[in-house]
Amino acid sequence: MTQPQSSDSKASRQVMWQALLWAMTAFLAWTYISQWIWPSPPESAPADGQNITQQTADPGNGAGGNNGQAGSPIAPPVSGKPSQRVAVAGALSVSGGDTVETLVLGAQPGDTSREYPVGVTVSSLGASVESVTLTYHHEHVGQPEPYALLHPIADADGEIQYRSFTLEKIFFIEDGKDDQEFDLASMNWNFKKESIENGESVVCWLDVTDDEQPVARITMTYEVHRQPEELLQSDLLVELSVDNLTDTPFEVRWVMHGPVGVQRADSRFDDRNLFTAVRQPDATEPEVEMFRITGTVSDEDRVVVRGSTSGDFFWGAVANKFFTAVWAPVSADDAGRATYLNAIERVSLNGAPGAPSTIEPAVTLRYISRDTTIDGGTSASFPMECYLGAKSRAAFETVPEYVARNYFAQIPASYQIGPCAFFTPTWLVQLMIRLLGWFHAVVFNYGVAIILLVVVVRGLLHPLTKRTQVNMMRMQQANAKLAPKIEELKRRFGNDKTRFHQEQMALMRESGINPATQMFSCLPMVIQMPIWIALYTSLNYNIDMRHQPFFLWINDLTVPDGLIHLFDAPGKTIPLIGMIMGPITTFNLLPILLAISMYAQQKLMPRPKPNPQADKSGVDQAAQMQKMMPLMSIMFAFFLYNMPSGLTLYIMASTLFGTLEQLHIRRHIREEEARGGPPPKKPKPAKRSGPGVWQKLQKMAEEAQHAKKKTR
User: Fold this and answer.
1) Theoretical Cys-Cys bridge with 614: which of 94, 215, 606, 618, CB 3.0 to 4.6 Å?
2) What is the mean pLDDT of the chain?
3) Which of 489 and 240 is assigned the larger pLDDT?
4) Same domain assignment for residues 409 and 430
């Protein structure tokens, strides 16, 4: 016959479910708030440019010139338009090529020679870069296609709206006349490909005329040099030059935007950002500022560097967590920093005509030059260097140009992205990366290196873990012995809670029990939490671990293990739970194995023996707490489902080693009990008699004062 449940049992169960409900509500609320702070905008597939037959003609030559110092208005965003061969502004006209074509510079499609670090597709439309691929990195594990760093941005109909490094506008000012403005983003340039010493170049040019009389030639040159992988360099050299073909001087001002189409590397949140590096007058190196790319079509352009500081502008970049596209102006004569810029803007590209409002946020930097005077028969040159590659610690710490410009600052700045950023001490992340690098140099497998890191951390924490567990076990045993006396106190002072707690604490002190011991039972896990977060950050932003395998199906430790492919991106989301675990595209086994191992460790945790004299409410409450432990394991599996497999591997290995440690500690306790209990504590040494240090110092001061009086 089933016994009726007591009112105390029902009340405790009701309190337990209320607490669980409030905890779930708080967690889901935090998840929603974190997604609002760190949004994950919808994906949009970029359109790839096509390689078409090249066009050749003589581009002419350019030489270095002088730079002016006048100001410049800020140009609006430029969207894609039908290509023009001739553009007219005032008395001047600009003429270019007839058809839109592309050329591939550097690494060709299917080329396995690996001579060039990048493959650059140059378009005659706007003399722009349509796409960039990285030879030494791949899109997917085990597949040969190179990683596409830059893409053109297209609208919903596939029409390209933006390309990288497009010269948007140029202004001519002659004899004090008003600016004559040309929209060059929609111009079709003449261009040809050439072989140069140790590399290749593409030269693009437009001719400016006045009533068919030559006035100027605008030339954009792209160069890629052979740079083997061991050099750690991955550069594209860009140079804009304007030749004055007349006998009278004129001024020019131009507007150009930087790299576009850098894709997100993380499916959970937008990991892309903008960087600008500016050196202040009293600083020894440039200071790097980061701007998150989280916006929509309503984003407004924003000036980030202007006027007086432009001479100290070092570089700007668009990056995701693994790769970066850096644009750096350089001096034409290598005499210090380039000073030809007047302003640098953060600009949203989402407002292109025909682009849907749901397009993924697209942001870049726009560069606006000063007014530059070009004397008759001379040229003005504006050289630029672009690093297009990985956020490589080795490259940024060894290549002199990268060190001088402080490219490395992008790496620690990226650690501040994501919901756990404010829990991440940068020095601890750097330490994790160093340790994993050292272990990998020995075992040549980052998965094994992670396990070795677990062994080191567990070994360092073992004395604390052992002492905590032993003390907790002893306290539970002592509590079991004191249970009858505590029940007696409840009967005597049940209505006076204050007196009951006072008498209970006095009883525990008399028995040598320290209640704080139980509070420190979770200390080893609390100490490990910063290590987990730092390891998560190092896995997320360490390019050396990208596409690094462990064993069997785990072929990339920076993404979920993905045992079985289920859905294509963006995947399926489970209501409510999907807010915790994110979209599902694969069946991930490691989080499930982790939940099982955590449950096994919880079963081995020391538990207090039930007190037969305790009231039923206390027994029911303890039983309910034991039933909640498996729920915690399941919640952990949901939370880590889409986390990097390297992090899940670390926590699972730590849990397994913790289980073995629990078995060892319990065996130690059993052996100790078999010997009659713990060894007696060593008596504390008796305090020495006589004056202490403070008394001695006071006596010395009095003697000094007495001697001083005698001298007087």
Assistant:
1) 618
2) 75
3) 240
4) no
Q: For residues 225 and 117, what is the distance between their CA atoms, to the nearest angstrom?
A: 9
Q: How far is CA 593 from CA 590, 603, 641, in A?
A: 5, 16, 11
Decide: helix, strand or coil at residue 217. strand
Residue 570, preceding peptide bond in cis (omega within 30° of 0): yes
Q: What pLDDT was estimated at residue 45? A: 35
Are 435 and 542 spatial neighbours (Cβ–Cβ below 8 Å)? no
Q: Enter the pTM of the model.
A: 0.75
DSSP collapsed to 3 states, 636-676? HHHHCCCCCHHHHHHHHHHHHHHHHHHHHHHHHHHHHHHCC
**Has residue 559 got a pLDDT over 80?**
yes
Distance CA 542, CA 133 (A): 20
Instruction: Work out the average pLDDT over 261-273.
Output: 82
Domain assignment of residue 144, given as a range = 86-414
Angle at CA of residue 564, ends 563 and 570, nearest 5°: 110
Round to the nearest angstrom and report the end-to-end CA distance of the chain: 102
474 domain-assigned: no
Report pLDDT digits (tens) over 584-637.
Answer: 888 889 888 888 888 877 776 655 555 554 555 555 555 666 666 677 778 888
The residue among 449, 457, 608 whose CA lies nearest residue 531 is 457
Using one digit for the tens of pLDDT, what is the confidence trace for 300-328?
Answer: 556 666 554 444 788 899 999 899 999 99
In this predicted model, which residue has the larger pLDDT, 71 or 266? 266
Residues 6+ apart with CB under 8 A from 201: 105, 193, 194, 195, 221, 222, 223, 224
pLDDT, residue 623, reads 60
Which DSSP category does 145 fall into?
S
Q: Looking at the domain assignment, is residue 55 inside a domain?
A: no
Give the separation between CA 306 and CA 312, rounded to whole angstroms: 10
Encoding tokens for residue 17? Answer: 């479910």
Shared domain for 256 and 350, answered yes or no, is yes
Task: Please check whether residue 703 lies inside any domain of the structure.
Answer: no
Helices 7-37, 616-639: crossing angle, 10 deg rounding: 20
The answer to whether 330 and 223 have CB atoms below 8 angstroms apart is no
Structure confidence at residue 606 (pLDDT): 56
> How many structural domains are present in the chain?
2
Same domain, 138 and 198: yes
- Where does a domain end: 643, 658, 674? 674
Which CATH number belongs to the domain containing residue 275 in this structure?
A: 2.70.98.90
Residue 64 lies in a domain: no
Tokens of 475: 């306290």
Same domain, residue pair 197 and 333: yes
H runs (alpha helix) in 542-585: 578-581
Q: Are residues 394 and 464 in the same domain?
A: no
Q: Could you tell me if 394 and 447 lie in one domain?
A: no
Token reading at 32: 């929603």
DSSP label at residue 305: E
Same domain, 332 and 443: no
Q: Which residue among 387, 414, 441 closes a domain? A: 414
Q: How far is CA 261 from CA 132, 368, 696, in A?
A: 10, 21, 75
Q: Which two tokens stand for residue 582?
A: 């994110």
Phi, psi of 473, rounded to the nearest 5 degrees: -65, -40
What is the tens place of the pLDDT at every residue in 109-137?
887 788 999 999 999 999 999 999 999 99
323 and 348 within one domain = yes
